[in-house]
Amino acid sequence: MKKYDTVGEVMITEEEIRERAAEIGEQITGDYRGEGVILIGILRGAVPWMADVMKHIALDVEIDFIACSSYGATTKTSGVVKINKDLDSDIEGKNVIIVEDIVDSGITLNYLKGYLENRKPKSIRICALLDKPEGRRADIKADYVGFTVEDKFIIGYGLDFNQKYRQLPYISFLNE
Ligand code: IMP
Ligand code: MG
Fold first, then answer.
1. Which one of 52, 101, 104, 131 is the catalytic residue?
2. pTM for the full model?
3. For the chain, which residues score pLDDT lower than 70?
């Protein structure tokens, strides 16, 4: 595997992530038994995690994606998030599971949850690969969490720094 001098130690291996994804997929299967779910991945960071989790959900599964961006550092506190790509699917009456790479301040998810609630889904839950509780500024909690991480800038397995490192098959941190 290629070594990058800007990448720190491996914090979570690919195998650990895959095992956790299987556990969560099985948990979702149990929680929604007899029903279907629609997984909504937040582009682009959620892609590898969502691909892992969905393989372990033994229900009727639909998938869709949404892309958003924060209005920038100064307006971050306002919680205003811009939708860059909306859903293609109708979610009314469906069990929605938002799939995200990391919950940091929670501002993005807090906004998105409200945005999607307006479309009257049957339920909404959140499934995040990582949770960084020390960063939290909005009152939001993921229902399914892969791993809790310390307050470092995380990269790999979908998470980027300036759009790089998303392809790393493990979770690491930026080594400046
Ligand atoms: P929020 O602060 O919870 O709204 O997080 C918004 C987005 O910031 C997340 O979906 C990630 O894409 C990104 N983000 C937050 N923390 C990190 C990190 O440690 N590494 C890479 N991206 C991050
Ligand atoms: Mg993201």
1. 104
2. 0.95
3. 1-2, 71-79
